[in-house]
Amino acid sequence: xxxxxxxxxxxxxxxxxxxxxxxxxxxxxxxxxxxxxxxxxxxxxxxxxxxxxxxxxxxxxxxxxxxxxxxxxxxxxxxxxxxxxxxxxxxxxxxxxxxxxxxxxxxxxxxxxxxxxxxxxxxxxxxxxxxxxxxxxxxxxxxxxxxxxxxxxxxxxxxxxxxxxxxxxxxxxxxxxxxxxxxxxxxxxxxxxxxxxxxxxxxxxxxxxxxxxxxxxxxxxxxxxxxxxxxxxxxxxxxxxxxxxxxxxxxxxxxxxxxxxxxxxxxxxxxxxxxxxxxxxxxxxxxxxxxxxxxxxxxxxxxxxxxxxxxxxxxxxxxxxxxxxxxxxxxxxxxxxxxxxxxxxxxxxxxxxxxxxxxxxxxxxxxxxxxxxxxxxxxxxxxxxxxxxxxxxxxxxxxxxxxxxxxxxxxxxxxxxxxxxxxxxxxxxxxxxxxxxxxxxxx
Length: 443
Hints:
Distance between the termini: 31 Å
Domain Inositol polyphosphate-related phosphatase: 2-317
Helix content: 10-25%
Strand order of the largest sheet: 3-4-2-1-11-10
Family: Belongs to the inositol 1,4,5-trisphosphate 5-phosphatase type II family.
Radius of gyration: 24 Å
Organism: Lates calcarifer
Largest sheet: 6 strands, mixed
GO molecular function: inositol bisphosphate phosphatase activity; phosphatidylinositol-3,4,5-trisphosphate 5-phosphatase activity; phosphatidylinositol-4,5-bisphosphate 5-phosphatase activity
Region (Disordered): 260-279
């Protein structure tokens, strides 16, 4: 996970260090929350029509490594992106996004929260990226804004209509909590000498957690990295401007595991036992492996904060909703066939479609071609359905591809074939066509 207030800057050329790509074991999910993405009216409208520059660099960096953008949500300067390894896609279901503007102090829209929720192998998880009110003396308002976001956001899912109904919630962003009471000289000397622990008891979020019951349910790792705000741009030097802002841990990543319900006195014994059995049968354990910042990035006056987590969970299911496979050998010399079978009943639609993706694809919309599923009536479970793909739609040069079934109602790819080879066509050989480099892959 990454949180970064980018202060309207354009992205750096290289985000390898930011994503810890060279230093950590293989990752399954990336969740990236940005604040203050350039949101001038012209820029914001252009980003609605096409991906913004930050989304582009993350997709261009992660796609060659087998990560696909699951979804994203944007509210003016707030941006939240979720990526997953390709093989996880069919098990990420019921994706929903929403956002909440906080209007305190008249700042409509530039502060608030954006969230993504989905079912991951049957476990309900929610990611909430916030940008809360600024300035030292607004700690209480920040808590109020967070409560307001929790109250206002709802999802069209019966068992998890609100953020705190999810089994695991990650809350992160520029939460804007400051270090109270200490003077600038004491702050800077404590940071320089590495005695960060002297500042913890005056960190406003830590102080607020002691007072507010609902905040105590959120866990956070120790703040063993330097405060990430406020820096002179392109430097490791804290603010030398006339304002001389005090350093602060404004940028944070916390998590919450849903507490087990306490049995009420009215429950009969059997009901309370079944509730606990259901909770315990599929537990989810969260442990934080890393919580740090990356001082090497200087495009913003904030430094990015990075956390890595291990999620230990028992899969509630491991079968794709739709089984899909190519039939025979594919090349652009002839029409091709594919089979698909609905393996489990779901809310299918005649607007569902099957995409042909080059391995290393960036998102569900990054297909070479697609075919609508059968239009006349919806398939029965376990019925094998065959679809023809016109040879003119098949890539001439061939390469490694995968088929994906996209569910319009679930907003996600719910079935993936194994990777397969499309052969180079006779026309490509005759015309001497040369493979292009797609998403960093040349196949």
